[in-house]
Task: inverse folding
């Protein structure tokens, strides 16, 4: 049984170094956490890339909410994504909903085209973020996205309200999701959720504030990340 993935949100190089020292497997890079995480600058990506050797998933989202903001905003976001790609970013986090509450496929395809173009890769790997928790129909959204190149993860709490409310949904989707993109649980995730989630076969977890002993006003704490790493390594899935 491979060890579960622990992904930690990093805002800067100091966060990244602390997360790696604590045992994180991957980082999600964002800025402006007050807006639930927006696209970082090219300079911030470069600083973090030079500070750690973990895989980095870079957020592609320029404003609060889950709409792309229209054609001009999408063009600007694509340009920033292209700059990050040129800097060496090769894994991303993205996802937009249309006015019907389902996937905005035009925006998603535009961005995935940019992040794979000229990369030397068949496809850049990416996560569809917690926009799924605001979707009008989670199953329909998954059907819309099925087969899109590079999509390998859904970051989800199972509910817009967080893991406490979404736990039954996560367990059900894990049971039905064999062979599809990995479920990565994040959004109000606590240590006491881990036994049920691991028993369901879920093997990827995402933390932000839980990695920061002083909350979002303070940095990632190595000891906090290590606590999660140790807890995940101790929980053995049933079956």
Result:
């Amino acid at each position: 049984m491979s060890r579960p993935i622990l992904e930690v949100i990093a805002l800067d190089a100091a966060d990244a170094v602390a997360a790696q020292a604590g045992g994180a497997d991957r980082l999600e890079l964002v800025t402006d956490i007050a807006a639930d995480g927006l696209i970082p600058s090219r300079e911030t990506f470069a600083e973090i890339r030079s500070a750690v050797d973990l895989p980095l998933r870079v957020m592609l989202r320029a404003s609060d909410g889950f709409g792309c903001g229209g054609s001009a905003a999408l063009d600007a976001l694509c340009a920033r994504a292209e700059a990050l790609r040129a800097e060496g970013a090769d894994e991303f986090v993205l996802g937009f909903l249309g006015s019907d509450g389902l996937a905005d496929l035009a925006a998603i395809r535009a961005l995935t085209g940019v992040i794979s173009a000229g990369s030397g890769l068949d496809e850049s790997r990416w996560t569809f973020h917690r926009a799924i928790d605001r979707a009008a129909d989670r199953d329909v959204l998954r059907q819309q996205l099925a087969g899109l190149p590079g999509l390998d993860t859904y970051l989800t709490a199972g509910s817009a309200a967080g893991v406490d409310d979404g736990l039954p949904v996560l367990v059900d989707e894990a049971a039905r999701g064999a062979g599809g993109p990995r479920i990565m649980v994040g959004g109000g995730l606590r240590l006491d959720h881990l036994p049920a989630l691991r028993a369901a076969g879920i093997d990827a977890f995402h933390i932000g504030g839980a990695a920061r002993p002083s909350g979002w006003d303070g940095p990632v704490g190595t000891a906090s990340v290590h606590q999660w790493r140790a807890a995940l390594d101790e929980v053995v899935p049933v079956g």
User: Anything to note?
Assistant: The first strand starts at residue 5 and ends at 10.
